[in-house]
Design brief:
The complex is a heterodimer of chains A (871) and B (428).
Chain A: H1 6-11, H2 17-33, H3 35-47, H4 53-65, H5 72-83, H6 87-100, H7 106-123, H8 131-141, H9 147-163, H10 171-184, H11 192-205, H12 210-214, H13 216-229, H14 235-251, H15 260-273, H16 276-302, H17 313-329, H18 345-360, H19 365-375, H20 381-393, H21 400-417, H22 423-440, H23 455-465, H24 470-486, H25 498-512, H26 520-536, H27 539-560, H28 568-592, H29 596-618, H30 626-639, H31 644-658, H32 664-681, H33 686-701, H34 710-724, H35 732-748, H36 754-778, H37 787-801, H38 808-825, H39 830-835, H40 838-847, H41 852-869
Chain B: H1 17-50, H2 53-59, H3 69-76, H4 91-94, H5 99-106, E1 111-115, H6 123-126, E2 127-133, E3 136-143, E4 146-151, E5 156-160, E6 180-188, E7 193-202, E8 205-206, H7 212-226, E9 239-242, E10 246-247, H8 250-258, E11 265-272, E12 280-288, E13 311-316, E14 321-323, E15 331-334, H9 337-343, E16 350-355, E17 360-363, E18 366-369, E19 372-377, H10 388-399, H11 404-410
Parallel strand pairs in B: 1-12, 7-9
Antiparallel strand pairs in B: 2-10, 2-11, 3-4, 3-6, 4-5, 6-7, 7-8, 11-12, 13-14, 13-16, 14-15, 16-19, 17-18
The chains are: A mainly alpha (871), B alpha+beta (428).
Amino acid sequence: MAMEITQILLAAQSADGQIRTVAEENLKQFQQQNLPLFIHSLSTELSSEHKPPESRRLAGLILKNSLDAKDAARREELTQSWVSMDPSIKSQVKESLLLTLASLVSEARHTSCQVIAKVASIEIPRREWQELIVKLLNNMTQPDSPAPLKQATLEALGYVCEEISPQDLEQEQVNAVLTAVVQGMNQMEHSSEVRLAAVKALYNALDFAQANFENETERNFIMKVVCETAMAKEPEIRQASLECLVSIASTYYGYLEPYMQTLFNLTSNAVRGDQEPIALQAIEFWSSICDEEIQIQEESEEEDTGSSPHSNFINQALPVLVPLMLETLLKQEEDQDQEDGVWNLSMAGGTCLGLIARTVGDTIVPLVMPFVESNITKDDWRCREAATFAFGSILEGPSVKKLAPLVHSGLEFLLNAMKDHSSHVKDTTAWTLGRIFEFLHSASSEYSVLTAANLPRIIAVLLESIRDAPNVAEKVCGAIYFLAQGYEGGDSSSSLLTPYLGDIVTALLSTADRADTSNPRLRSSAYETLNELVRCSNLRETSSMVAQLLLEIMNRLSKTLELQIVSSDDREKQSDLQALLCGVLQVIIQKLSNSDETSSIINQYADQMMILFLQVFACRSSTVHEEAMLALGALAYATGPQFAKYMQEFYKYLEMGLQNFEEYQVCSISVGVVGDICRALDDKILPYCDGIVSQLLKNLSDPVLHRSVKPPIFSCFGDIALAIGEHFEKYIPYVIPMLQGAADHCSELSPDDDDMQEYGNQLRRGIFEAYSGILQGFKSSKAALMVPHANRLLKFIEAVVSDKFRDEEVTKAAVAVLGDLADALGPNTKVLLKDHTFHVELLGECIQSDNDQLKETAVWTQGMIQRVLVS
Amino acid sequence: MPQPEVRRSIKRSAVSDQQRRRELALLRQTQQRSDSQNRARRLASSVFTLSSSSSSDLILPDKGILTRAADSEEHEAHLDESVAPARELNVVQASKLKGREARQWFARQLMLPEWMIDIPPKLDRDWYVFARPAGNRCFVVSSNGTTISRLRNGSVLHHFPSSLPNGSRTRDSSGPASSYCVLDCIFHEPDQTYYVIDMVCWRDYSLYDCTAEFRFFWLNSKLAESGACNSPSTYHRYRFSVVPIYDCNQAGLHAAYSTSMPYTKDGLLFFNKHAHYQTGNTPLALVWKDNFCSQYFLDTDSQGLVPTQQQVVLEMQEDGKLTTSDDPPVEFGSLEVDFIQKSEFRAGNLLRFAIKDESVRVVDGKLEIGDLQFISKSNRARAFADSYSKVFFQYAARHSPLKIEDIAASILPNLPDDSPIVDVEMGS
């Protein structure tokens, strides 16, 4: 009954565009008209050995895409249509897929594995297709199974494990899968293809192996086999095995003690002698161990109890591990500074060394310094660069006290090294200076390495080197970034940096203009460093300079509007540049609006800026420029009520931003900007509220919208309510059910999942802020409207308060809304507050808090409640 | 098989400035949201101490449901001061309010003169008179390095630097940084000048409880010292000026009425010398106009024309009664339930009506209106209904106005000091 679709599938891959389009259209129609038959036909095509490999491959691919999609809503839709399909069709399809595993055509086998995993991802969590695992395992245990079938079976097992989660399988099934996989790795019995497939399957199955790792015998067996395959003669198998070891390092850190000596030998051999991809994995193994130990240390610092056991692997291995990593630093590539994100032995080794320093602290210093001292003056640039890189890598972790003397005595040397013959050395030296400023320079620290005496020399070197090669200049920008940062929040009367700011700004602006590189990174580093400079500057001393910069950036932004746009590439470049410039404007606006004296500067240029932002928005037709939106929010708050005159023009872009589900960051920022506008305009925002509120409600009901946008939407309702007061009345019938639904949803979130816990806290806070805004907004005239909802709100507050996972911000919002309830509804809440006495303990607790804001809010709320109770 | 995520190289900065900008923007918004909400809360907690009992009804109109301010005042005494946060909201705190709360607060801070519908006794001995400059009444607060003027409805007119105490960010400003001042002014458009008609606070010194006599003395001596009367400059955007204030004797009345002033006149203001600065309507300050000294003798409608029928703006109460802004309110009629339901008006709405002359009667000196004809909802900018005295004055103005001669006659120089003045009955 399957349709014959071979010709269409081949046509869909034709070189002739017209034929291809027609074929694609045919396939689409077929899919829409009769999905079961379409799927059945595809699976038949895939499993038919006499069909051409090309049509079989495409059939499998389309089949896969009929079961899964990146977009969550689309994926759910596809899942539902599969679930509701005629069972007889589904079992025929699955039969065909399993049959294909034995195909002689490797492409067909491979595609079939992927489709099997997709079907499994739908059915196994629903406790369907339970025979899949048994059938796959049969392929492994049948004595006459051909090698290709075994290879495909292992591949399928791996993909299935990747698609489902451990709780979807019974322990027996897990045991059987692991047994089959580990046996498949055995080199005596199997071809290298089968063994490679087995190792890759193990990688995906590791998450399922908790119980097996807890059992010493089974753990020993797994580790023995993995370590053996890590020394296999085939490089692909060695690499895949090391990837398994990296994963084991983080998943099963606590069980590794007995194997560490073996693992050190194995990985150090790989680092020293194996091919680069394998050596990189070996270094990654140690970086992962560092990650684990750093995390354990951080946990034990945060809380006194409950942290995982620390095995001190890094400390124990330190005398041999540090030299191993130092060796890798000498294996630089000639052109490594020219590429973004280059990853080679030297980079991986330096990164690992940095992690080791963060793990062990001071003890690394004496192990690294001899290497630095003996290499830094050698003739070979590799030695000088490696020495500098080693020094720069260990600047985070050891104490400032330990490092400061070294930096003091080495600083002049480093400054001179900015004139080294080698660009590599200069690149790494500038980066090291940046690290020094980042970790050892703070205006408020007693060990700060920057002094009034050495600052002029440092600035002079940086401003000269910023004109060096683009990669060096970029690192210099980074150094200036941290240099400025260190002066933030120091003595407020004056900043040591102020006298140099003019020259630095000029240098950064001309760096942003440099035409000698096509790499956009230098330009963005220059502008972003400018941002930090503005943020950290002492406004009292620099307001006129910042105002001048504002004009310059506005000028630059207006020039982007005149750029010739021919291609989409031009458009993208224009957009990127606008993003950087809007970013600077945002930072300047935010800085200047910090004081009344300087906020008048913003008001002076508000019209011009607004025109520019609107023009930037107009450069794109379908999406809203995120950075312009951020800048606009800052402008709205800074200008206050006079922002009203821009609203009519701006509103369409705001709406576009609120509708942008795809780029949820843009949506989220637009929601935040609504809040800014509310606070700027107060009830002048009223004419736009119908549109905004209905869009926000639509967003909340949409399953596609990224969940992180939802809590800000609730807070935004509060902002609107506070701004328009009694006029919020008409939205109550829509907003309150949303708030109540979300409150119910909070109790359904899994407390075991950290992400969900975090999300739950954000959601609770958003809901409370919404209620607070509504209650305060209604207080003077419409409070009665909230009386019917008071009981439910109070119950929700009580439920949240009893949740031990609530964070302090949630507590504060809960306490505040409790006070708002009493404040706005007055004696109406008397009976409720007498019935729900949880507030007595809660407030008592909060008043003892060290958090002043929480304390203040609690005191206020207590006053409000007492007022009601004595009324 | 997915490749493990590539580890970020130590040489690549982990800091994304874009992410930082997002986070800082979020932080700013969170902080500002919290500030806004706290402002709403602090206002709430101080409502009963900062306003007179009359304004409590404006804040809590729904008496059936909400706490009366009077009750709260009683209960406040029971609250332990260490538990309850500071409830006092002074002008400086209030000047940190924003938006609606600020408008609501400031709308209640001005002393509002009643319209002169009869002549008070002892005018010459107990009262001042001066020509009211034409323009908007404003409440001007200088504090924290800036100056803000707000209109009668509480909305901001100007936000500007001035030479008033702490009214701009000049380094040489004398006095402590926390210093502030509050003035009652009229902004006169043609010469862009704030004419100060009363001084409420000066350099932290509250003049609320001082007599007008003292306030005017203080005003005349202090304002000029501050440099506020100087011509505009960078740190002093608008000129301030005092108005000539006269004892309300024959000469003073004549001077106020007939002498040409540097500003356009809009009627005369009479202030009782012994009265304190009292927010809201007060009979101890009076406004009077005629066609000679004011372009705004008869009320105009929204087009600026004098309507053929007198119009009034009244506030609709819960039960449909239409009242003035006085305390206690004076009722001039009521709306029918059907009409209210159809119109969707709510308690507190300000509505404009026309009055049929023939339906108005004065009984025992009280004005009664028989027939109110609904015109429209009033302009949103308006914060209060008309006062009884204004309605009466406007009615009289159309029929038998109180003339300058009448006022002058009441202060004949030979009039014995303690002889009672016969009230001039309007419309009789």
